[in-house]
Hints:
Elements: H1 2-14, E1 49-50, H2 53-62, H3 65-76, H4 79-87, H5 95-113, H6 129-137, H7 144-156, H8 168-181, H9 186-193, H10 203-212, H11 215-236, H12 243-252, H13 256-271, H14 278-299, H15 302-316, H16 318-328, H17 334-351, E2 355-362, H18 365-375, E3 387-393, H19 396-409, E4 411-412, E5 418-419, E6 433-438, E7 444-451, H20 452-460, H21 465-470, H22 477-493, E8 562-569, E9 572-579, H23 584-591, E10 599-603, E11 606-607, E12 619-624, H24 625-631, E13 652-656, E14 663-667, H25 672-699, E15 702-708, E16 715-721, H26 734-742, E17 759-762
Parallel strand pairs: 1-14, 3-7, 8-12
Antiparallel strand pairs: 2-3, 4-6, 5-6, 6-7, 8-9, 10-11, 10-12, 13-14, 15-16, 16-17
Helix pairs in contact: 1-5, 7-9, 7-10, 8-9, 8-13, 9-11, 9-13, 11-13, 12-14, 13-14, 13-15, 14-15, 15-16, 17-19
Amino acid sequence: SPPVQQQQQQQQQGGKQQQLGPPASHSSNPPWRSTSSTLPQSNSSSNIVELPGLLSRALLRTGGEGSSREGRAATEGGAEQQLPHALSSPLLHASPLRDQCTDSIGSAHRQMEAGPSPEPDFFPGVDKSLLRDLQERHSIFHTQLVANAFLLAAKAHEGQSRKDGSSQLSHSVLVGLQLAQLGLDAECVAAGLLHEALRSHNSALESQMEEFMPSSVMQLVNRVTAISEISCVFRNNRDKLNEEKWRRMLLAMEDVKAVLIKLACRVHDMRTCGALPRERQVSLAQETLDIFSVVANRLGIWCLKADLEDLAFAVIHPEEHRALSEQVAQRQDSEALEATITRIKAGLDARGVQYEDISGRPKNLYGIWQKMRSSGKSSLDQVYDVTALRVVVTNKHDCYVALRVVQELYRTMPSRSKDYIRGERKPNGYQSLHETIYGEGEFPVEVQFRTHKMHYIAEYGFAAHWKYKEKLSNEDEWLDKEVQYKKWLTMYKLGVHDKKVRPSGAPLQDCALKSLGVHLLHSADQSGGPYGDGSVAGAEQPGVDPFLRHDRFRLRAPTKASVNVVVQTQDGIDTRELAVGMTAGQLGVELGVPNLPRYVLTVNARLAPPGTILRSGDLIQVQPAKQVMSAMQQQPCLSPRQPVGGQEEEREQLVFLPGSPVPVRVVLPPSAAQRKAEKQQRVVARQQQRALQRAAAAEQQEREQLVYLPDSPIPMRVVFPSSSVPNSGGFGAGGSFLAQMLRGGFGKGQRRSSASGDTMQPMA
């Protein structure tokens, strides 16, 4: 308005012009919690009106919706009439504040019309070009959760590098990208980006992650960290730990997403392990082959299983891998396989055959090498399933119709035709038709024909393929149910892409069982399901085939009778089965930790409260308190909530005084959530301080004994430092000192073998 312009000209002439920061839109939410419009940090502290907490809250109450509307009306209509009333407010009686508000009305109005201010940069100094590249490669990186996870990972791994010279951030990014390409959700991708962030036990960084990440992501990160810790312990103690127990422990973990993140992490670790010493490469590859590839196979993730096996095969048997890969390259062609699948699909469509799924895959190198060794074949020419595809139809009749369609399209090998439906019967109940053809490019291809029910039995039932590969019997009921349930969760609840070759436009995941309604089932609690035996719920709803309600084929979740953990003490390391619901305090009493004054019990490398309930996959360690506390020392780390310039975050909000168009920026007191978080941090700091004090007191603990020196009637109190072995009953280095005293004391030049700090004191 004209009066405002006149006042501005007068202020400019007098050199008193000041600038008020851009105002934010009126909202009941504090601006630092808003995602749409947040007030940026001002460079001038003179623009901020600091008010006491009670006055701030009272001002916010009076400057609510009604007063805001009144202020906006004054701004639009007659600012020149409302201005004297606004500046006569008792809160603005100070002349500098009157000048500031009067001088800033015009600029504030212009900035309001310009739109909302940009969001503050909570991650200053982080290069976001890599994030933009990821967003171009996959849409999931556009989500706020995944973007924040990337920025947190960039801050956590700043300046860190791997043995091969690449940055630690590149490892986390590639793991997250692989999880995204597998079709996993934003929570899993975010946890994959942060899966290495807590390995350094940086409590300051963990508090920052908790500020930006939901609890579900933090739980995933903690579980992956625990798996990594156990993996390291396993490689260092292979002769003491059972491989099958380690595999079962991974399968028994509650959240299968944590296992998938670790599998993706191990794939990239194997691709970059060439910079490690040869001994460590072989140790890592052997664990990958014995543990992680087996778990991936049990979960039905063919692409991860093939990558893990081939990468480990290249490390353990480099010459065989190189020679076989050269031969297989001449027998496998992904484009020829895709052309073969497309032609078979067209032939089935022409005959009116309804199919559930058509998929193919090239057999991986390690699988070919294993088959040649087990069957005694010396040449690759004797292996005909180097490439294979599968056709899943709805009934047995269509299996034979589809077989005839393929026989009409391609030249076959009659000697390799097998009928496991009406002809030869497998003892484990497996059913399929097998035919070997010369596909596109005259490459040999093995084709399997089966119904969706046969496919269910071959993947989830008593004829499961993973049991056939591992040559396991049907006696382990728990393992059968666990693998069946976790594989169903992976493929149909998480929707993992198996990366097999399919016709153009087909879904990326296995859809062969959708007509049975497997995807309509939903997990029940561990107490029992609708049948009272842990059966997966939803079998009674429409769309689910009655086949899935049969006792032999019902999908069941395993009942938890125990939890499997790894326990490492001074006496050794072993896996133990504990009762469900056992706490860390109960296990500590069982291990005798209260009798070890300088030792503490940790769960997954953390000090755990006694009431912490133990879960499958936990790493329980009894370690010296000094060692644990030194590992938990906080490292300096810039808070991601700290704005650019290093200034402390200011909790600000623009408010309109009653009847005033002038926005006033108010510094608010901490919110209840912030006060609670700060209180929790103080509690944790006090607990750590007490633990350090107890450890220091135990270190200073001294053991005393009264002895009589030879030819002396005066007893001497000898103070020995405490032994390095708790409760051993000995005196450590001081024992030899006491023995020499009892033998007659020290002579001149005699060697003294006691520890530093021993004292002798005469006593009455």
